[in-house]
Amino acid sequence: MDTKNTPPELSTHLPATNSSNGKFDRWWILVILVIALIIGLSVFVPDPYGRVVNFVIDGIWVTLQVTLISFFLVLIVGLIGGLGRISKNWLISGIATLYVEVIRGIPLLVQLLFWFFAFPSVIQKLGAAINFEPFKNYLANPVGMVILGLSFCYGAYMSEVYRAGIQSIPKGQMEAARSLGMTYFQAMRYVIIPQAIRVILPPVGNEFISMLKDSSLVSVVAVADLTLRGRQFMASSFLPIETWMMVALIYLTLTLFSARLVNWIERKTRLER
Question: Which of 69, 123, 125, 252 is the most exposed place for a label (fewest CB within 10 A)?
Answer without folding.
Answer: 125
